[in-house]
DNA sequence: CTGTTAGCGCCTTCAA
DNA sequence: TTGAAGGCGCTAACAG
């Protein structure tokens, strides 16, 4: 029968059953100090018999470490972040850490609440994908965190903290370069706010790549301030309904890509014959899409790895006080079927 | 500068700064006992000044409760489970609980390790989506858990524990009934092992619905033991290459649906004109599929809600020892474009 | 090698 | 209404 009927035994009961002192039990179970083989076995048997599991709170209180990491995600519905969560949980677990997962849903109040909680829990370290807006007033609090912090995917201007990000300018550049090489000249971009560094950098890189090909990005073909699928959908419809339709469109993230695809489907345009589509961020299940989506992929496994190992280094006291470490990883172009040469002029 | 430079103040330093005793600080900050308004404000100011956050481990050690829930998921890459995670985190957080997320990746050893850890953490309650295989030897351990446990989505034969599941027979039935009404007579099913209750119940319901329409499910058209997308893909190819191709196929879960769709695309069959496709479990981003996928949806929000509220009830000591509570929720058919009447005979 | 002991930070009697 | 003191379970320092 499950339920609070049973109570967890303490180290003293294990000690009593094994006929030794509590200190010996502690040492035997933790491989610390010297304990004779005979006793260690008696202790382990006793512990197993009683179903003993050490009380993590008591241990933390004494030792000052919880072996818990806080993972604070801006928006868990974003498949890219989700992938990161998956990898991070896996890596943390392999390193002997548990993960408290928190989702901010892009609301800074939620992030703040969660952060306070993680502080109370005295997690040994925090991985933070910060919310997009209204973080300005809070970088002070972040800077004063007593435990190591690693920013993931998004940097925070004015906060000197470790970070793992990708080269977003490069992401935009790769997309632009690919389209240019295919011969596109009238291309569009669907993006969020230029206020957000990530979107801005992707735009910059995109524009730069076009310029390299002698093309100036038409300001009319930049759909800014699309913050969700719906906004992207409407903006793309507008782009497609122009007299001179673009021959290719870049969506700068996951959510926007969905809106983009929906709009293209609504207008019954064939991909890639009538229109090339390219996106930053892969979609889950893009495998079932025909044609496959050409994307600039973010190396989620590598990001997770860099974030965790950087954090554990700090926790372990390695990488001492020599300022913030900024790891920047390279995105990669995956060409699939959604991009092709532009339709020949009618 | 982030990092372990700063140390978190204790309740004693708050007390000193406020010029009161630690007991008063505790009472003031927790609304317990009587504290004069003047003191409470002095205390709160002091706490804020110092950036004090109570040490959760110390509190747990003393109080016996951690306000942490363990969420142990068989496979976080399954979009349906993911949806549950999302809802559960949200609801737990709203109720003042944190969530330690663990992913077993369908490996019972990982599940076991995680469970031991959650035990050590003395989480107040556990939500468990158990791995599919090799759980038999472990129901003893689960039954003896000192904290409340709620099984989610999957029951465990022989374990008397609270559970929240859906009516899987009904799920199969809804799919079968829909196809029958459309006039299909030669239908196929792609499923996992009949050993697994969920798959078996869905098959049973499906068969029953067909029988109601006077159709006997052809044993040749049951693709059993498909445990992943790849297996489903190959099985469906085989089904489609038969002399007498089925006019409709049901995939009994998320992963299998992907394999099914891939196979259909490979054979260049038009959905729903040449073949109707129906699935249990919605796909994320099914919104961008054209035609939309007709699915039997699991009410993930309701499942999460029932699971959390059931668990919190147990934690709160409500629902006392009156045996296991089994909540069974109803799936729902969402008709979209992937199903239609069968092609008329050539 | 093993045992004894102090104390981590907090909350909850109990006394003033 | 406020303060003093004990102890939750564990580990680390020290004694034997």
Shape verdict of chain A: elongated
Strand content of chain A: 5-15%
For the biggest β-sheet of chain A, the strand order reads 2-1-3-4-5-11
Spell out the helices and strands of chain A N to C: HHHHEHEHEHEEHEHEHEHEEHEE
What's the tally of helices of chain A?
12
Proportion of helical residues of chain A: 40-55%
Low-confidence residue ranges of chain A: none
In angstroms, what is the radius of gyration of chain A?
26 Å
Main beta-sheet strand count, sense and barrel state of chain A: 6 strands, parallel
Structural category of chain A? alpha/beta
Show the largest interface. A-B, 69 and 68 residues
Mean pLDDT of chain A: 93
Oligomer: homodimer
Kindly state the number of beta strands of chain A.
Answer: 12
Between the first and last Cα atoms of chain A, what is the distance in angstroms?
76 Å
Give me some keywords for this one.
homodimer; 346 residues; alpha/beta
Spell out the blueprint of helices and strands.
2 copies of one chain form a homodimer.
Chain A: H1 11-18, H2 22-30, H3 37-50, H4 56-63, E1 68-73, H5 79-94, E2 98-103, H6 108-121, E3 125-128, H7 139-143, E4 149-152, E5 162-166, H8 168-182, E6 187-190, H9 197-212, E7 222-223, H10 229-240, E8 248-251, H11 254-266, E9 276-280, E10 294-297, H12 300-315, E11 326-329, E12 332-334
Parallel strand pairs in A: 1-2, 1-3, 3-4, 4-5, 5-11, 6-7, 6-8, 8-9, 9-10
Antiparallel strand pairs in A: 10-12
The structure holds a DNA duplex (16 and 16 nucleotides).
């Amino acid at each position: 029968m499950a339920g609070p009927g049973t109570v967890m035994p303490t180290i003293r009961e294990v000690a009593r059953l094994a006929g030794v002192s509590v200190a010996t039990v502690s040492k035997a179970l933790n491989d610390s100090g010297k304990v004779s083989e005979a006793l260690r076995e008696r202790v382990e048997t006793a512990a197993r018999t009683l179903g003993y599991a050490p009380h993590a709170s008591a241990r933390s209180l004494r030792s000052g470490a919880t072996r818990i990491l806080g993972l604070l995600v801006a928006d868990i519905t974003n498949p890219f972040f989700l992938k990161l969560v998956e990898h991070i949980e896996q890596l943390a677990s392999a390193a002997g850490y548990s993960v408290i997962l928190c989702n901010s849903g892009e609301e800074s109040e939620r992030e703040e609440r969660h952060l306070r909680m993680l502080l109370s829990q005295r997690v040994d370290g925090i991985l933070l994908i910060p919310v997009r807006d209204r973080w300005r007033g809070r970088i002070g609090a972040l800077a004063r965190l007593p435990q190591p912090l690693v920013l993931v995917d998004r940097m925070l201007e004015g906060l000197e903290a470790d970070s793992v990000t990708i080269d977003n300018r490069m992401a935009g550049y790769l997309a632009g370069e690919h389209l240019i090489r295919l011969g596109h000249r009238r291309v569009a971009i669907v993006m969020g706010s230029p206020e957000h560094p990530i979107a801005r950098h992707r735009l910059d890189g995109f524009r730069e790549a076009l310029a390299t090909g002698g093309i100036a990005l038409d300001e009319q073909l930049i759909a800014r301030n699309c913050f969700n699928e719906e906004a992207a959908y409407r903006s793309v419809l507008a782009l497609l309904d122009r007299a001179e339709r673009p021959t290719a469109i870049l969506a700068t993230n996951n959510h926007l890509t969905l809106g983009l695809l929906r709009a293209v489907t609504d207008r019954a345009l064939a991909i890639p014959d009538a229109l090339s589509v390219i996106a930053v961020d892969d979609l889950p299940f893009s495998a079932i899409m025909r044609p496959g989506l050409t994307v600039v992929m973010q190396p989620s496994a590598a990001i997770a790895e860099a974030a965790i190992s950087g954090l554990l280094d700090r926790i372990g006291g390695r990488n001492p006080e020599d300022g913030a470490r900024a790891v920047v990883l390279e995105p990669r172009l995956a060409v699939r079927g959604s991009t092709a040469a532009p339709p020949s002029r009618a």
